[in-house]
Structure formats: structure tokens, C-alpha cells
């Protein structure tokens, strides 16, 4: 068996288990008037955070993007728990960036020597990519591409599992 | 010789070559649904990155959409059914 294929299926089951557990927890917190639009919106936020958190936890700290995402989620929940202390937010985001930079190379400027106008477009797209992949700002180009590939694989797994759950629920 | 000198102007860290970057770009290309079906060697690296950004954005939108649907469904489904579904999915 292809070892990558094995990794994909166990990643799927790890994510599914965590996400379903989180979903039942969210379901248990349902108040009486659970169909008001505000409740639905709040639950949507919680579900989305739970999905991202389950995925990042299934990958643990093996990947820079998962570390960055867990940092983001933790600082966000810390901010929500203590909404009065604004200063805590700024310090947490800067320390998370420092933590990521310590673990990866410090190279941000890494222009490949490709000829033609392709080079400019490439660098612009790479910067766009940095904004999309969590933790991408502090990565060099090689790591960025590597992390992107893994991130896309995990995102597709996440979408697959969520689609299956929605299909089952809407039976 | 001069090109190698200009390429290795990075302080410390690993010397990243064009070939490495090309390999990574090709690996990314394999993951993208649209480009995979066309002839793989005729797509430029910038195009691959652009398609990657679009693909990630569309995946994010899908996750948002599915989370919203799940939130609405959770409002209506009752708990016994949920337990049954969970045991089905655990196989």
C-alpha cells in the first residue's frame, strides 16, 4: 500500500472522530430557542472553529500551518473569554509570529531566478498565497509550497467529511 | 558560475535551487483539480500559484457553506438521531 494513502485515511478518521465529538458538544449546548438566526449564526461560528481546530489537532505540531492555526484559534478564544483586555490580543499575535519564525527559516525574500515576466507574477502570487495559508507570512518559498500542498490535502479531507456529515443529517 | 553566486546570496539556511522549486510547483499542480487534466508541462509556475490561491479560497468558501448548513441542521435534528448517525460513521 502506498504510505501516503494510509496517511490520508487515518487523517480522515482522526479528523472525523474529533469533529463529531465537538459537534455533539455544540449540540448539547443548544438553548431552547435554537432556531433564531442569531443562534444559528453563533453556532455556525462555533462549528467552523471546531472544524478548523479538529483538523489542526489531527495534524498536531508536525506542520507549520497547523501550529499557526492552533495559535490563532487559542488567542481568539482567549480574547473572547476576557473581552475587556484589548492589549492581550496584540501581544499574542506578535508572540505567535515570533514562535513561528523561531521554528522555520527566517528567509522571506526568496526570488527564484526564472527568466521573463513569469518571475514577477510568481512573486506576486506567492505573496497572495502567504495570506491564505495560516502562518505563511513567516515562511520561505520552499516551505511555503510544501506547507500549501499539505494544507490543500487537509482542506479537501475536511470538506469531504463535512459533506458526508451534512448528507447524513439531512436524511 | 555568476548565476550560482547570485542565487546563493541567502544568509545561512539551505541553498534553494530552481529545480527544488520547480519540483514543488509540479507537486502542487497534481493537487489542483483543473490543471491536472490538461497537459502538465505547459503550465507556468505563476499560473499554478494563481490556481492554488483560487482553489484554497473556494475550499474555504465550501467549509463556510457546510458549517452554515450544519448549524441549521443541528437546530432541527434531535439527539437520538445524531447518536445513531455517529455510530454509523464510526465504522
UniProtKB/TrEMBL annotation, chain A:
<feature type="compositionally biased region" description="Polar residues">
    <location>
        <begin position="81"/>
        <end position="98"/>
    </location>
</feature>
<keyword id="KW-0539">Nucleus</keyword>
<dbReference type="GO" id="GO:0005634">
    <property type="term" value="C:nucleus"/>
</dbReference>
<protein>
    <submittedName>
        <fullName>Transcription factor IBH1-like</fullName>
    </submittedName>
</protein>
<dbReference type="InterPro" id="IPR044660">
    <property type="entry name" value="IBH1-like"/>
</dbReference>
<feature type="compositionally biased region" description="Basic and acidic residues">
    <location>
        <begin position="106"/>
        <end position="117"/>
    </location>
</feature>
<feature type="domain" description="IBH1-like N-terminal">
    <location>
        <begin position="9"/>
        <end position="76"/>
    </location>
</feature>
<keyword id="KW-0804">Transcription</keyword>
<dbReference type="GO" id="GO:0006355">
    <property type="term" value="P:regulation of DNA-templated transcription"/>
</dbReference>
<keyword id="KW-0805">Transcription regulation</keyword>
<dbReference type="InterPro" id="IPR044549">
    <property type="entry name" value="bHLH_AtIBH1-like"/>
</dbReference>
<dbReference type="Pfam" id="PF26576">
    <property type="entry name" value="IBH1_N"/>
</dbReference>
<feature type="region of interest" description="Disordered">
    <location>
        <begin position="81"/>
        <end position="117"/>
    </location>
</feature>
<dbReference type="InterPro" id="IPR059002">
    <property type="entry name" value="IBH1_N"/>
</dbReference>
Automatic annotation (TrEMBL), chain B:
<dbReference type="InterPro" id="IPR011598">
    <property type="entry name" value="bHLH_dom"/>
</dbReference>
<keyword id="KW-0341">Growth regulation</keyword>
<dbReference type="Pfam" id="PF23174">
    <property type="entry name" value="bHLH_ILI"/>
</dbReference>
<dbReference type="GO" id="GO:0046983">
    <property type="term" value="F:protein dimerization activity"/>
</dbReference>
<dbReference type="GO" id="GO:0005634">
    <property type="term" value="C:nucleus"/>
</dbReference>
<dbReference type="InterPro" id="IPR036638">
    <property type="entry name" value="HLH_DNA-bd_sf"/>
</dbReference>
<dbReference type="GO" id="GO:0040008">
    <property type="term" value="P:regulation of growth"/>
</dbReference>
<feature type="coiled-coil region">
    <location>
        <begin position="56"/>
        <end position="83"/>
    </location>
</feature>
<feature type="domain" description="BHLH">
    <location>
        <begin position="5"/>
        <end position="59"/>
    </location>
</feature>
<keyword id="KW-0539">Nucleus</keyword>
<keyword id="KW-0175">Coiled coil</keyword>
<keyword id="KW-0805">Transcription regulation</keyword>
<keyword id="KW-0804">Transcription</keyword>
<protein>
    <submittedName>
        <fullName>Transcription factor PRE3-like</fullName>
    </submittedName>
</protein>
<dbReference type="InterPro" id="IPR044293">
    <property type="entry name" value="PRE"/>
</dbReference>
<dbReference type="GO" id="GO:0006355">
    <property type="term" value="P:regulation of DNA-templated transcription"/>
</dbReference>
Amino acid at each position: 500500500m502506498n504510505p501516503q494513502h494510509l496517511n490520508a485515511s487515518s487523517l480522515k478518521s482522526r479528523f472525523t472522530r474529533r469533529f463529531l465529538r465537538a459537534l455533539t458538544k455544540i449540540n448539547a449546548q443548544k438553548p431552547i430557542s435554537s432556531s433564531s438566526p442569531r443562534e444559528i449564526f453563533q453556532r455556525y461560528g462555533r462549528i467552523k472553529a471546531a472544524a478548523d481546530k479538529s483538523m489542526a489537532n489531527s495534524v498536531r505540531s508536525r506542520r507549520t500551518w497547523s501550529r499557526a492555526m492552533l495559535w490563532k484559534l487559542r488567542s481568539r478564544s482567549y480574547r473572547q473569554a476576557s473581552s475587556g483586555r484589548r492589549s492581550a490580543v496584540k501581544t499574542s499575535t506578535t508572540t505567535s509570529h515570533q514562535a513561528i519564525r523561531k521554528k522555520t527559516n527566517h528567509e522571506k525574500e526568496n526570488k527564484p531566478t526564472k527568466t521573463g515576466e513569469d518571475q514577477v507574477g510568481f512573486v506576486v502570487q506567492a505573496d497572495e498565497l502567504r495570506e491564505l495559508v495560516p502562518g505563511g507570512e513567516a515562511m520561505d518559498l520552499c516551505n511555503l509550497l510544501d506547507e500549501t500542498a499539505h494544507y490543500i490535502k487537509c482542506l479537501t479531507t475536511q470538506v469531504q467529511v463535512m459533506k458526508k456529515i451534512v448528507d447524513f443529517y439531512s436524511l | 558560475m555568476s548565476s550560482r553566486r547570485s542565487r546563493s546570496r541567502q544568509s545561512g539556511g539551505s541553498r534553494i535551487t530552481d529545480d527544488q522549486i520547480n519540483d514543488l510547483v509540479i507537486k502542487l499542480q497534481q493537487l489542483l483539480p483543473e490543471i491536472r487534466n490538461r497537459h502538465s508541462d505547459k503550465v507556468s509556475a505563476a499560473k499554478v500559484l494563481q490556481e492554488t490561491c483560487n482553489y484554497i479560497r473556494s475550499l474555504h468558501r465550501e467549509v463556510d457553506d457546510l458549517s452554515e448548513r450544519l448549524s441549521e441542521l443541528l437546530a432541527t435534528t434531535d439527539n437520538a438521531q445524531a447518536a445513531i448517525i455517529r455510530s454509523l460513521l464510526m465504522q
